[in-house]
Specification:
- It is a single chain.
- Helix content is 40%, strand content 16%.
- By secondary structure, it is α/β, with parallel strands linked by helices.
- It has a single domain, classed as TIM Barrel (Alpha-Beta Barrel).
Amino acid sequence: MSHLTAPFRYDFVGSFLRPARLKQARVDFEAGLISHATLTKVEDECIAHLIAKQKAAGYHTITDGEFRRSYWHLDFMWGLEGIERIELEQGYLFHGEETARGSIKLVGKLGGRCHPFVDHFRYVKQFEDGNTLARQTIPAPAQLLAELFRGENGRQTRSIYPDLEELIQDIAAAYRQVIDDLYQAGCRNIQLDDCTWGMFCDTKYWSNRQAGAVTVEEEAAKYLRLNNLAIQGHAQDLTFTTHVCRGNYHSTWAASGGYAPIAPILFAQEQVSAYYLEFDDERSGSFEPLRFVSPEKQVVLGLVTTKSPVLEDADTLRARIREAAQYIPLERLCLSPQCGFASCEIGNKLTEEEQWAKLALVRRVAQEFWG
């Protein structure tokens, strides 16, 4: 077992562009042309190749690139007890593009037994060595709660859970079950991916969504309590981090706005070891809210965008790291891309070569700062 601890000075968020062979296999499986066993074999081989490239690139993190998923979040939710896969009439409306229309339907009480992601992690774990740590990425509990009340989903959710507190407790318990099973499988690093905070940052989005029914502070406090409840009591050698995003679909985005509205809540009170934060353009605001990050935590600066093939200027990255260090000490900072390269299987608008060039740049600049 690796004894490394995340985050690393140069790191990545988790998902990678799907190779053409994998995309075709998924199409063939949906069309009934190949068996699930054949699809799994293709997935295994593509993941093994990806991990070899992650190691060759000098990274200490290994992941499956989310190659077995259609979505960064929904596949995990579909694996929970009490949840059924559905398609909505409309996807999320991102900046200039509608997303795919998958969602969830609550059909019974929630549970986390026998989640398929545990076996998915076991496959990655076998490639771990003394220089690498196998990471499991999952959507944050708050993300599940938000999806359960997305549009018409809320009516069905309330029919099964008329008491919101019971729902919150069952979400937390289901997550703790999955977390415990992952830990027993050897997982020592879990990353909670969480767009809920990114939506709080967008005041226009928030006012349209809530229409004054509830304040940002009230809703954020609910999400914070749920996230903390789900990870409480975990083993000391299990590291939790979180990634905060404003949407990442086919190189488009959903929300804009700096971290100021949620910084005193998220940065000071969520019980994680580090924050992977989106800072790749003006939509993310200034670094000033980093002053709220509690002193025992680290921040991974997502300065390199996964939304564009254009390779960033190294001098600009260096200057931005120094700027961030005005608000949080340099020794508590790390560097990464701002998000995954393929939060959904469609992927972002760049090539695999451009993807790896960005990761090479992240490593080179980080090594200049931290060795």
